[in-house]
DNA sequence: CATGGGATTGACT
DNA sequence: GTCAATCCCATGC
C-alpha cells in the first residue's frame, strides 16, 4: 500500500484561519518520523504579531511566497519553529504548527529528544521540530513535494473537535483567538485552553 | 555598524 | 514562580 498523497497546494491557498483549523488532525511528516497535528496558530500580515507585519524583508520572503511552502525560523536563538505558508502569493500569512501526537518513528523521536514519555516528545513548537529533525535549512521547502510533508487526516481517525483560544507567547495582538487545539489531546502544549479536558486531572 | 527583542524550553529557587 | 541560553535580523544611529 502506498502512502497518502500530501495535501494539494489549493488547500493552502485559502484564508489562513481556515487553513489553521483544517490542519488540526492532519499529519506532519519528515523522514521516518510523523505526527498528527494537535495544535495550530494562524498569523497574517495584517496584525502585528505576524513576522510579515513589517513587510517584505529577507526574513519574510518565504511568508510572502507561494502557499504550501514551509516557513522555518529560529526562535530565541535556540529552537526551529515550522509554519505552513498560506493564502495567495504576495500575502504574508502562515500557520504555526505548535504540537503533534507522535505517530511514526517513536524511537528516533525519543533519541533526538532524550525523553521517553510520548506526551513530552512533540508537545510544543520547538519540541516537535527537534523530534522530527526539522532544521532551518527546511525553510521555503515545498510541503506538497519536498522532504517536509503534510498529509490528510488518516481516515480511521475521527475529525477532531476544535477549541479556539488566544495565541501563546506573543505580546502584540494577543487578544485574537487564533489558536486551535484538538479537544482531549494529551499532546497540546501548555497552557491548555479552557475546555481541553486534561488527561487525568480532569477528575476531582 | 551596534543593539535589542523574540511565535521557547528546561533547569533551578 | 523565575531565569538564562543563544542566533537571526529589523531597526536606528
TrEMBL record:
InterPro entries, sorted: Formyl_transferase-like_C_sf (IPR011034), MPG (IPR003180), MPG_sf (IPR036995)
Biological process, per Gene Ontology: base-excision repair
EC primary class: hydrolase
EC number: 3.2.2.-
Disordered as annotated region, ranges: 185-204
UniProt entry keywords in alphabetical sequence: DNA damage, DNA repair, Glycosidase, Hydrolase
Pfam family, one: Pur_DNA_glyco
Molecular function GO labels: alkylbase DNA N-glycosylase activity; DNA binding
Family: Belongs to the DNA glycosylase MPG family.
UniProt protein name: Putative 3-methyladenine DNA glycosylase
UniProt organism field: Conexibacter woesei (strain DSM 14684 / CCUG 47730 / CIP 108061 / JCM 11494 / NBRC 100937 / ID131577)
